[in-house]
Amino acid sequence: MDNDFSPEDFWTGTPAQRIAKCREMAAQAERLANSARGDMRGSYAELARQWHTLADELEAWEHTAA
Prior knowledge:
Elements: H1 7-12, H2 15-35, H3 39-65
Helix pairs in contact: 2-3
């Protein structure tokens, strides 16, 4: 799994690639949340939620732009 994040690569990818990367990052944050302790669990869970939200917003924007 490639969990490196490069803003340059993110914005040069296709819309589908950007959405997939957001989902991948969300899944990674969820795995980290499941194994974290204390406050970190909530922080990773919130990060996962934000990645999912970004993916959803990108999908919605892509559907309206098409």
